[in-house]
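Thread: "does anyone have the structure for this chain?"

Original post by V.I.:
We have the sequence but no experimental structure in hand. Need at least a predicted one for the grant figures.
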Amino acid sequence: MDMDLYFVRHGLALDRSSSQPDMTRPLTREGMQRTRQMAHALKRLGVTWDLLLTSPVVRAMETALLLEEVGLTAALRVYAPLAPGGDITLFKDWLTTQEPLPTAIALVGHQPDLGHWIELLLYGQPYGQILLKKSGVARLAWQLEGAQLLWLLPPKLF
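Reply from O.Q.:
Generated one for you, C-alpha cells below.
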C-alpha cells in the first residue's frame, strides 16, 4: 500500500463563544478566504486527490466544499470518524474495504485529532506535538512499513 495522505484542518470559524452550537459553527469570511488561498496554492503545486473525506461538522464540510470547488478532487464524502474524537482505527479498517485502493486521500478535520492521527501513523502513538493550524496542510507518504512526514504547512505559506 503506497498512499499519499493529506491532512487539512478546517478554516477559521466563528468563535466558540458565539451563540452557535459547536457542530454548526460556520467558517468566517476570513476563514473562507484563507482556505481558498490554500486550495489554489495546492492546485498550483499539482495536488489532486482520488477522494476527499470530511468531518460532518459544518466548518469542516465548508472547507471541503471549497477544496472541491477548486478542483482538487472529484469525489467528496462526509466521514463520521473525522468528527472531533474520531478513531483512526476506523479509518484504517475502512481503507481495507476500498477497491481499488486510492493513491491520494485528503482528510478534513479538527485539532488535536488530526495531529494525533499523524503521530499515530508516524510513531505508533500520539504525543500531542504536531499542531496543524487552521487551513494548514500536512502530507504523509504512507506505506506498510510506516509513514513519512513530507509537509507540515501553516496557512501563512499560502
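V.I.: this helps a lot. The radius of gyration is 15 Å.
O.Q.: and The chain has a mean pLDDT of 94.
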